[in-house]
UniProtKB/TrEMBL annotation:
Lineage of origin: Eukaryota, Viridiplantae, Streptophyta, Embryophyta, Tracheophyta
Domain of life: Eukaryota
Leader sequence residues: none
Name of the protein described by the UniProt record: Putative transferase, Chloramphenicol acetyltransferase-like domain protein
UniProt keyword terms in alphabetical order: Transferase
Species: Helianthus annuus (Common sunflower)
GO molecular function term, any single one: transferase activity
Length: 266
């Protein structure tokens, strides 16, 4: 979007950062992969009309700073990022809202770019979406008994452990047994999944109508437990988070005291 916006502002001239179209391929493998399907119905999901509630929660830059400081202080570290702290908070709050048994195992997953983690790294201008999904796991009892920092550190460990070796092993495993994942594999009552990133400069993209009033993610890929991260309109490190839940869970999370205590910080 940033490149399209630059093209618009320059009147169709060349962009300052041309996209890199050369494809990354795992050494020793053909870039063309045959999928093990004979008919489209084997991998295409039909739309199922389900009722979800969506709500945007806005975290001020001050609230984000406090969240990050709290998470790091509880773990006696400085390694937990603002994003990991916010996702950890929502992992705890969504789990509470679902009222799951304390021995139930739950997973919170997040996507991250593999560009800088590969050796050699991919260019920041690599055209495409080279992302992987990692997750922190815990029982409901452990997640809620421990603090914010404990949950955030589970996510931090999952991210830092997914290095060049882990990425290439995962890609190789998929090449040997390729599959197109369906939503049933990606979402569920025991899952919270974070997508997008507040690092995307959504409000800096200009197409002749001025600064956007808000960022929305559209109607696709809506499932119980999905959280979509956006930069806050006021900037400065603020975040707007879109949360999608079943109606009964949304009602519960809107009354969650831990969540509301951070949303009230200006």
């Amino acid at each position: 979007m940033a490149a399209w916006s630059e093209i618009f502002r320059s009147g169709g001239q060349s962009v300052s950062r041309p996209p890199v179209f050369k494809r990354w391929v795992l050494d020793g493998y053909d870039p063309i992969i045959n999928l093990p399907y004979n008919h489209q119905d084997q991998f295409i999901e039909r739309f199922e009309n389900q009722t979800f509630k969506e709500r945007f929660f806005s975290f001020s830059s001050t609230a984000i700073s406090k969240l990050k400081a709290t998470a790091n202080s509880e773990c006696n570290t400085q390694k937990i990022s603002s994003l990991q702290a916010v996702i950890a908070l929502l992992w705890r709050c969504i789990t509470r809202a679902r009222c799951l048994p304390h021995d139930c195992e739950i997973t919170c997953s997040l996507m991250f770019s593999t560009r800088a983690r590969l050796n050699p790294p991919l260019s920041d201008d690599y055209f495409g979406n080279p992302v992987h999904i990692v997750g922190g796991k815990a029982t409901v009892g452990d997640l809620l008994a421990h603090g914010l920092g404990w949950a955030a550190f589970r996510l931090h460990e999952a991210v830092i452990n997914h290095d060049d070796k882990a990425i290439k092993e995962e890609v190789e495993s998929w090449i040997k047994c390729p599959v197109i994942y369906k939503r049933i594999h990606l979402f569920g009552a025991n899952l919270v999944r974070a997508a997008s990133s507040p690092r995307f400069d959504m409000y800096g993209c200009e197409f002749g109508l001025g600064k956007a009033l808000a960022v929305r993610s559209g109607c696709t890929n809506k499932c119980d437990g999905k959280i979509t991260m956006h930069p806050g309109r006021e900037g400065g490190g603020s975040m707007d988070v879109e949360v999608c839940l079943l109606p009964e869970y949304m009602k519960n999370i809107q009354a969650d005291q831990e969540l509301m205590s951070y949303l009230m910080i200006d």
